User: Fold SPP1 family phage portal protein from Paenibacillus brasilensis.
Amino acid sequence: MISLFDAYSALNPDLVNEIADHRNAYLVIENAKLETEDLLNMKKMGIIQVPAGGKVSWLTKEINDSFVKNELDNIERKIFDMMDQVNFNENWASNTSSLALRNKLLNLENRVAMREALMEKAIKQRLRNFFTFLHIKEGV
Assistant:
């Protein structure tokens, strides 16, 4: 599960950084010969001067947004499947029967009831241990 959470957590910020920061982008200058000094001046002044017929553009990586979205959706689906949880974010059809919805929620209710029973048992054991400690320490 941890590797799936890590993959999901890594894809989102990487994509946002890629879009926001133009990571791995190169400045392309066509039909112009520039010296190192010219490049430093351009950076300092924020101006690019090229001769007539010259062209300046960014060479950026094409981001296939549908591929990224599909990958995020696949990872999310795997997480819910492996954890045997109900995805309440998914769009259920408006004509879904109440029986179908009940079956989806039944598994969740069973797990919650089981966890409640385990928590109750743990709290009772802690209280027993606390009273045993008080009996040994204080004789009460």
